[in-house]
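Attaching the record inline, Q. Sequence:
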Amino acid sequence: MLDSIKIKLQYLLPKQGLTRLAGWGADKRAATLTHWVIKAFARFYNVDMKEAQNPDLKSYATFNEFFVRPLRDGARPVVSGLDMLCLPADGAVSQLGAITDGKLFQAKGHFYSLEALLAGNYLLAEQFRDGQFATIYLAPRDYHRVHMPCDGVLREMIYVPGDLFSVNPLTAANVPNLFARNERVICVFDTEFGPMVQILVGATIVGSIETVWAGCVTPPREGIIKRWTYPTAGEEGAIALEKGQEMGRFKLGSTVINLFAANQTRFMPNLKNGTVTRMGEPFAEALRTPATATAEPVVAEPIIAEPVVAETVVTEPVVTEPVVTKPVVAEPVVTKPVVAEPVVTEVPVKTETPAGVATAEPQAPKDY
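Structure, as predicted:
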């Protein structure tokens, strides 16, 4: 009965207004009141301040400073190995596994569309068809900075407006299309083993989502999809991040979803629904394509020739002309429904499109 009431409240409460109010309060410098709130929060959620770079609760001027606190050096060692990916965040595995028939598993009885998750971008969705996904839920007590699971070069970032349902095991089991209808920031990276997507999902009371290269992405919440494209590897201005490096953070919230292309990664066998995660620990292994087998060289036995008398044979050297390989220029990928430009593009949202439905049109945030 209590769970049913909680779910109904998710549809009835003014989530956008509550989130704006929480964000406003979390950024206020209220001295004694701020310190009291931080202390009460840390005690209620049993926050381990011994891991923090600054363990003194009174040293944080705002609640947001406390919430996105950095950890001390060495608190989260990153797994080594070129083919080993590390977990991107502290939290717990919500779900992980194969993307089947273009759908991701949300919870018992609930699936959602890969294309809807990627805001109708069917060309991007096609790159991850039959691939792998992992969803990690960050609880209030967790460290709320998100890191790179592997080396990558940022290709594009897409902000998708949406609802702000709470994200937790209860809502995942009862709110259809939860992750495809909530506000989110989609970050697309190119890696040595193929494309990778890392999505930061918003929720009720999540005051802000930030990235290290763009700063605060939301708010403001303007109800329109925005897309940024970036230079490719080797070009001036390219954004390259290393494994374990911070890439973003939540100011209150939420969930991280990773997408990997087919036959490119294999998750660690110990990871399953409910597994506690710590940033930097083993996440997956990259499956590199084996090199084509080559025939072993044939070693001929030496031939001993009799000496030639009174005649010398001079062999002229053979000059091999260098082979010039023309660079291959990749054709630009046109995504739909957002037009790729080197600047921010804005696409109006049709308010009559119900949230969570995979369409080629952007969706407007809407309370249900």
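The first helix runs from residue 2 to 12. The CA atoms of residues 3 and 170 lie 8 Å apart.

More tomorrow.
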